[in-house]
Amino acid sequence: MQQAKPKRRLAGACRWAMAAVAFTLALIEIGATARAQTDYPNRPVQIIIAYGAGTIGDVSMRILAEKLGAKLGQTFIVENRPGAAGIVAAKAAAAAVPDGYTLVLIGNSYAISTALFKSLPYDITKDFTPISALATFDFLVATRKGSKFKSMKDVVAYAKENPGKLTIATLSPGTTQFLAVELLKVTAGVNITAVPFRNSPDAAAALLRGDVDIDMDSYAPLKSFLASDKIDIIATTGKNRVPFLKDVPTVGETGLPGFDVTSWNGIAAPAGVPAPIVTKLSAAVNEALQLPDVQATGQRLGMVMHGSTPDELKSRLRADIAKWSALIETAHIPKQD
Q1: Is the model more confident about 315 or about 1?
Q2: Cα–Cα dist 119/101, whole Å
Q3: Could you give the CA distance from residue 47 to residue 75 in angstroms, rounded to a whole number?
Q4: What's the whole-model pTM score?
Q5: Residues 106, 266 contacting (CB under 8 angstroms)
Q6: In sequence order, which residues have a C-beta less than 8 Å from that of residue 76 and are 6 or more positions away?
Q7: Residue 64: which residues within 8 A CB-CB, separation 6 or more?
Q8: CB neighbour class for 85 (10 Å; exposed up to 12, middle 13-18, buried from 19)
Q9: DSSP H or E run through 186
Q10: What is the distance between the alpha carbons of residues 335 and 337, in angstroms, rounded to a whole number?
Q11: Residue 10, pLDDT above cutoff 70
C-alpha cells in the first residue's frame, strides 16, 4: 500500500500538468481570436449577391464595397451568383466560415422565398447574422401618357365596374412586383388581371404599346420613359412619399389606406460571426451610406439609402416573412417546390 502513494502523486502531477497545458492553449486561442477580431479585416472580404452584373443590386453594392474598403483598409470583392430566386447565393453564404470574410446581400426577395417555397436549403432567420439595412425602394404605378387613369381612385373604380378587365404588367410570380399586384387585389377587393413579363423592359414596352393598362415596377426601368414624358406616375406603393417624387401620392393616400409595399436590401453574414466584427461592420456600413455620392447614386437608381442596427434588420426580415406568408395564404397562391 505504501508503494501506491508515489504513483498517485505522479498521476496527480500529470493531470495537473495536462490541465495547465490545456488552460494555456485555451488562453492562446482566446488571445488569437481576440486579435483576429480587433485586426478585422486583415484580408479581402467577399460579398455574395444574387444579382447579375449591371443590375441595381450589383451597382449599389459595388459602390458600397468601394467605400467599405476605403474605410476599413481592405478590399471588398462583389461576387455575382444569380439564379434560383437567390437560393444559389444564400446557400453559398450560409455554408461559409462565420469569420466575417464572407458577407451576403439579402432583401425582401428572401422574405418572399421563405414564405413561398415549401422548403429551402437554408433558414434565412437562423443561418445568417444581420448586419445592417442598405436601402429601401418603392414601386411606381405607371400609366401611358394620356391614359384615362389619372389616379388610383380611377383604377379601383374601373376595376370594380369591369371585373378582370384591368391589366397590370408585373414580373414573374414570386417577385415583389407580382405580390404587390396581389396585395392590391386583396386590399381593394377587386378582380385585376396580372400580366407577368420576363423582365422590366418588356413590361414597360407592353405599357407603351397599349397591351396593358398599368405597369407596376421600380423607378430605374421607368426613369427614361418618365423623363421623355411618355408615361405618368399616378402613385407609389410605399407608406410614405418617395423623397425624389414628392408630388406623387402613395396608394394609401388615394383611397387604399394601409397599402404598403416597400422593397429593401441589407447585408448579412453567416450565423456565428463574432459580435465585435458585426458591430464594426454595421458601424462602417452606416457611415458609408451617409456619404453624399452614395446617397446620390441611390437616388439615381430609385433607392433611399439608409442603414440600421442588426436588430432592426432582423425585425424587418421577420415582419416581411409574416406579411407575405399571410398574403400568399389569403390570395391562395400555390407554394413552390
Answers
A1: 315
A2: 27
A3: 10
A4: 0.85
A5: yes
A6: 44, 45, 46, 47, 65, 66, 68, 69
A7: 134, 285, 288, 289, 294
A8: buried
A9: helix 176-188
A10: 7
A11: no
> Looking at 78-87, 120-129, 146-155, which range is the least confident one?
78-87
Q: DSSP string spanning 254-285?
A: GT-TT---EEEEEEEEETT--HHHHHHHHHHH
Segment 58-69 shows an average pLDDT of: 92
Give pLDDT, residue 83.
81
Alpha-carbon span 139 to 179, nearest angstrom: 12
Give the angle 85-261-298 at the CA atoms, nearest 5°.
75
104 in Cβ contact with 128 (< 8 Å) = yes
Distances (CA, A) of 235 to 81, 243, 251, 261, 273: 33, 13, 6, 12, 41
pLDDT band at 18 (very low <50, low <70, confident <90, very high): low
The grid coordinates listed for 22 are 490545456
C-alpha cell at 62: 459595388
Q: Retrieve residue 227's grid coordinates.
A: 423623363
